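input
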Amino acid sequence: MTHITHAASVRDGIEIAFGGGANPVAAGTTHTFTFAWLRDHCACAECRHPDTQQRLLDTFALPKDLAVTALELGAGGRTLSLVWPDGHQSHFAAADLTESLLPVGLLTSEIRSWNEAEIAADFPQVTYEALMGDDAVLESYLEKIERHGFCFVEETPATPEATKAVANRIAYIRKTIFGSYWDFTANMEHKDTAYTSLAIGPHTDGTYSFDAPGYQMFHCLGVDCVGGENVFVDGFRIAEIMKRDTPDLYRILTEVDVPGQYIDHEKGIHLMARRPLLRLDSTGRLAQVSFNNHDRAPFALEPTRMAKFQAAYAAFAAHANDRGLQYRRRLLPGSVVLFDNWRLLHARDAYSGYRRLAGAYLNKEDVESRLRVLRLKKSQAA
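output
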């Protein structure tokens, strides 16, 4: 349980030492929260709307020389109470204070990057019946995706209705140029190699979108073909390998914006966006892998830097095609997979014959919201 072991008023604010808890960033550390930050984050009904949780306090009207007149720890260090010079009182939960130290995102479960052998030993899956009927299983399912980047839902009825039900159990389906829910064979309905039977190399989707889909769902509703094995690769593991073994190549992949594009002139579509293959957040943590050689748009750099980028790009691709880093599986009716498109690369071998694939995209923030709410409900019930 997250708790405060010591709190004292210092010149700049309140110095707080944290004990153990779910937040690995804060446990065993000391952090000073400024007086202005603490007053601004008061959660009482006067300062924050109790229903909308929106701030009511006028942040910009606060005095610049804030301090507290009293502080007190309660509930075994799980709460901190402050009294301000005007008599206003603020109460903070230790867990909320540590949560504020985390980068935006979940991260309360350990993210475990994997290779072929490691994922085989700890394979993430649940059953359809359990997922649809039990919020505890839904929470576990989403935590498996948070941890491993994907999870299978087995024993799912091979119907569009059941496939949509799995998606809607989590969040609403995202609409894109491909529609919302999609269900297709190799018919070239859209200008994309996914709508063919050709081999598709490891990639992430939506490199041409400023907000690439956060999660993607696949369900094979019918199959009578030779080939067509699906491939999943943990892009975070590739990044770890490159950061350790070839740091110069890793670094350039975090620096160079790579453009992606999607073109369908018949439908009047030409999407473009750009970002680094390895996008870091403000703390230097890897936030997103964005790699699609099929959709890479033309761009050029100064010759020396271009050569270095091309070497790094090729090294990343070589890792993505390393069988030892891949999880390979022929998708069959009854097995739904949801995977993190900001982390996992996916691919497909060429095939001949009939293959009917259904699926959908979900937004990153909506899936994280679902898990966050489930965790909050569980903590409130404890």
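quick obs: The CA atoms of residues 117 and 308 lie 32 Å apart.
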